[in-house]
What we know:
Helices cover 0% and strands 48% of the residues. It has strands at 3-7, 10-12, 18-25, 33-39, 46-51, 58-60, 68-73, 78-83, 92-99, 111-112, 116-120. The strands form two sheets. Strands 2, 4, 5, 6, 9, 10 and 11 form a seven-stranded mixed sheet that branches. The chain has a four-stranded antiparallel sheet with strand order 1-3-8-7, with no helix packed on it. The radius of gyration is 13 Å and the shape is globular. The model has no long low-confidence stretch (mean pLDDT 96).
Amino acid sequence: QLQLVESGGGLVQPGGSLRLSCAASGFTLDDYAIGWLRQAPGNVREGVSCISRSDGSSHYADSVKGRFTISKDNAKNMIYLQMNSLKPEDTATYYCAADPTSGCDVRKFGSWGQGTQVTVSS
């Protein structure tokens, strides 16, 4: 059974950094597209980043490009999101997601974790 469990969220000041982790089980990372999305109260769900299953390329939303980095460790079955230069508008619940699709629209991925809260505030 596929399972994703996020951790690493918290409260951080603007300009700070956080690294989110996602423990994956029940599937092989290389066989799935994996990614992160976020949702703030009252906002639509936003795809943040994705690693494509087809070629391993990484993709980012314009709002986080240059600040966030997605990575994975196949040996540990872990997915990460390094978030630097955080802004108050990055405040949201962040979800790890996976799907056997060849695409990279994280909003359409079929499996999600329970989410971890990130709050950027002074």
